[in-house]
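Incident log, structure service

09:12 report received: a user says their structure output differs between two submissions of the same chain.
09:20 pulled the input from the user's history:
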Amino acid sequence: MGAAPQPAPALREPVNGLEAEDDADGAWRREVNRRLATDYASLFGRIDLLVMLEVEDFEAVRANRLRQEQRLAARHPGASAIMGEAQLDRFLMHYERLTRWTLEEMPARADLVIAIGKDQRPR
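09:34 re-ran on a clean worker, output below:
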């Protein structure tokens, strides 16, 4: 919530294998960026107070999501909707670019930044 568009030069290079293979020409990256600058900017402009839950880095996002999948697996043994590590990695690649960008730029403009530790609790 509240992601800002990236500067156009930042879109040139893929950040992961998914972008390199499935968006080699950058069309999807540019479209997402265009939407962030237009449709989503209008929606996000309605936010009265921007609160950021800030994790250390993208690797923390992966660790937190893996922990969530493991908890789901423990509660629902044999459930087919739970992602294995390979599925999780592919899923996260869809969000990697904006997550990394948001971790970089949002703290300076958020009204409140709450640092989240490795234990998934506020520091």
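09:41 both user submissions now match this output. Likely a transient worker issue. Closing.
09:42 reviewer note: Residues 85-105 form the longest helix (21 residues). The chain has five helices and two strands.
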